[in-house]
Amino acid sequence: MSIPTQLSLHGYIATAPELTKTRSGDPRFRARIGVERFRKEPDGSFTKLDPVHCDLVVFDTAAQRAFDRFRVGDSFVASGYINEYEVERDGHAVPREEFVARRIGHDLARTKYEVARRTPTAVEPAPAVVEAIDHAIGF
Predict the structure, then answer these.
(1) What is the Rg, in whole angstroms, of the alpha carbon atoms belonging to the chain?
(2) CB 32: neighbour CB atoms within 10 A?
(3) Residue 135, domain member (yes or no)
(4) Can you tell me the distance from the alpha carbon of 113 to that of 110, in angstroms, rounded to the nearest whole number?
(5) N or C: which end of the chain has fewer CB within 10 A?
(6) Closest by alpha carbon to 111, among 79, 52, 81, 71?
């Protein structure tokens, strides 16, 4: 048995998201994103490097939901694939790539939020448990 996996990416929204339409009229979310990078030094410490920036796109129903929920600076986790394509610049084909998210959500490790469930859970955690979890992840 093999566990089905997809490529994943975590980063932050670097530019104001845009909601446009594809040629067929379907919603498309697009934003420039940043991915933080670090280099491990011989002494065990880490040096923060410049982030890598690329385009993130989301299609269909998820595009509208992403546009409604994401703002500049929000941290996210997404799974999907890389789409490679070319654009013409000054008469030359320039290779580009974008991350196409099939699934996307806020990064739990960097975002404090509440979940609005479609059906209530049978047992809600005690406030002390919620406080302990928030403390453990840095809130």
Answers:
(1) 19
(2) 16
(3) no
(4) 10
(5) N
(6) 71
